Amino acid sequence: MRSHITTKGLERATHRALYYSMGLLPEDLEKPIIGVINSQNESMPGHRHLDTIARAVKEGIIAAGGTPIEFPTIGICDGIAQGNYGMHYPLASRELIADSVECMMNGHSYDAMVMITDCDKITPGMLIAAARLDLPTIIVSGGVMATGSFKGQKAGYTDLMEASGQVQRGIMTPEELSELEQNALPGCGACNLLGTANSMNFLTEALGMCLPGATAAATSSRKLMIAKRTGMKIMELLEKGITAKQILNEKAVHNALIVDMAIGGSSNTMLHLAAICKEAGIPFSFDEVERIAAITPHLVKLKPSGPHYPADLDAAGGIAGLMSRLKEYGLLEDNLTVTGKNVFENIATAKVTDDDVVRTKETAYSQTGGLKILYGNLCEGGAVCKKAGVVPEMMRHTGPARVFDQEEPAVAAIYGGEIKPGDVVVIRYEGPKGGPGMREMLTPTSAIIGMGLGSSVALITDGRFSGATRGAAIGHVSPEAAEGGLIAFVKDGDSISIDIENGTVTLNVSEEEIEARKVGWEPHKPPVKPGSYLDRYSKMVSSAMEGAVFKR
Fold it and tell me: Which of 103, 282, 403, 503 is least surrounded, with the fewest CB atoms within 10 Å of its CB?
């Protein structure tokens, strides 16, 4: 076992003594040592309760004959960082999370690992670490948040984001907003929408890297049982020598993309899947993403794109039920999973129990997937749109550009009534390098919806979007402005044409004019302190369409 390097031999007396000083017994060191990476903290509802998940995981490990050693990693709440300087950090923290897991697992030579997560960048950070270390590994998420309520109706995070604009317009009172704030998010768990947190947790199940049940409620006994079984199962994987990269392969990524398209997941999944594939050495191309989108029906619409909540998907059969339906359509690949069984064995008894929540191919929202990759002179390296959240009248749009260097002035203009129907809001210098950190543009997109402009205004950015975003929102524009991409040279009033169905974004300005604008250009300087982590990150990070990973 790997851990014997620290527990066996005369020269390891001090190592053993350090373990004994923490209350471990000599018998404990004869067993496999399992790292339990717990991202529990008190800064976010998705992670507030993870100590209970960790306790169940450790009980399972002990029951199956292992010795669990728990250690932490960081977790930033995108919601609390949203719309302010703090949003420079969540995506950048993904690399820190992966690096910290690597440091601890290799520094202490643990034999296998269970990683406990729930929210946006923590889950992909842990999956990157799993691919890098290639040890027996299982992910377990903290579960989904229950659905809230407001005035007798279901409510959630998306309703809150759009309510500010309704107050601004006089549709809702400040008192009603306060009531909504206190009832929309009723407890622990990944926020009650198909944001990046739930998208990545659901895709982790599709990848085969967690036990079935990613949609289980955070506060349910079922979630604790899944956690305990995870602790037991990791011992089986270790005994059988099943490591992460035996599961994380092209078939697993294919299945994840199929599920992603069927649920219309967060556009951030494109960032994270690209990064995970880079780490695992798996080919990842947006041509393949487009091919999969073209053959996958869009079967599920959760908030903000549709009327349903994550809890509704769980009640309808969860990801396993959805995958059983996708298997019927011949869309999935059979592949090894952390259960020790293949995908098709895992979903053999699963079924959809509500065809309104998980539609059939015949009643699908669309015969193609919920995400779209776009190209054009404004995004020669590509861009991403969650077309599942776009109203039909905005699938094709041409309008004048309203250009902003970074998010804050754009939000002020939207709430100030300066953005008019037909406009195309362009927010630049928000990419991985130029932001830095590729901030989410959820605040401006929610402002557009809240101000009643969702069916007449588009937004284009080299930043990214939350899964909570809906509307004609095109992000991940590459090359980004800080790299001299064409988005850096757009001016107010320029005509921009968007064709989401055909996947094009075009700046309708002559080549001669564009070349003239490039003369003497200097990039916007990012608002970071020299020597800070963000400063280092901006110098090392690759483009969004490469997964925003560190250059190698």
Answer: 103
d(CA 123, CA 150): 30
What one-letter code names the amino acid at 539?
K
22 CB burial (10 A radius; 0-12, 13-18, 19+): exposed
- pLDDT score of 280: 98
Helix, strand counts (H, E) of the chain: 21, 14
User: What is the spatial distance between Cα 203 and Cα 199, in angstroms, rounded to a whole number?
Assistant: 6
Is residue 466 flagged as an active site residue?
yes
- The residue written with tokens 């195309």 in the block is 424
User: Looking up tokens 């250059």, which residue turns up?
Assistant: 551
Q: What is the pLDDT of residue 239?
A: 98
Mean pLDDT of the residues in the chain: 96
C-beta of residue 260 within 8 angstroms of C-beta of residue 326? no
Angstrom distance (rounded) from CA 268 to CA 4: 40
Backbone angles phi, psi at 94, to 5 degrees: -55, -40
Structure tokens that stand for 152 in this block? 């007798």
* Residues 6 or more apart in contact with residue 254 via CB below 8 angstroms: 292, 332, 333
Q: Give CA–CA dist 81/139, Å, rounded.
A: 25
Q: Which of 48-57, 308-317, 383-392 has the lowest mean pLDDT?
A: 383-392
Alpha carbons 257 and 242: distance in angstroms, whole number: 23
Asked if 471 contacts 454 with a C-beta cutoff of 8 angstroms, the reply is: yes
Q: Which two tokens stand for residue 473?
A: 């929102």
Distance CA 484, CA 441 (A): 21
Q: Which residue type occupies 243?
A: T
Question: What tokens does 331 get?
Answer: 């869309």
pLDDT, average across residues 481-500: 98
In sequence order, the 6+-apart residues with CB closer than 8 A to the CB of 300 are: 262, 263, 264, 306, 308, 313, 322, 357, 358, 359
Q: Are strands 153-155 and 148-150 parallel, antiparallel or unpaired?
A: antiparallel
Please provide the distance, in angstroms rounded to a whole number, between the alpha carbons at the two ends of the chain.
Answer: 31
Q: What is the pTM of this model?
A: 0.96
What average pLDDT does range 512-530 have in this prediction?
93
Question: Residue 132 pLDDT > 80, yes or no?
Answer: yes
Cβ partners under 8 Å of residue 362, min gap 6: none
Active-site residue (options: 266, 324, 456, 466): 466
Q: Give the 3-state DSSP-derived string for 104-156, with helices as H, strands as E and coil as C.
A: HHHHHCCCEEEEEECCCCHHHHHHHHHHHHCCCEEEEECCECCCEEECCEEEC
- List pLDDT tens digits, range 356-370: 999 999 999 999 999
- The number of beta carbons lying within 10 Å of the beta carbon of residue 363 is 10
CA distance 185 to 147: 7
Instruction: For the beta carbon of residue 495, count every other beta carbon within 10 angstroms.
Output: 13
Beta strands 67-72 and 33-38 are: parallel
- The residues near 403 (Cβ < 8 Å, ≥ 6 apart) are 426, 428, 490, 491, 492, 494
Digit-coded pLDDT (tens) for 219-253:
999 999 999 999 999 999 999 999 999 999 999 99
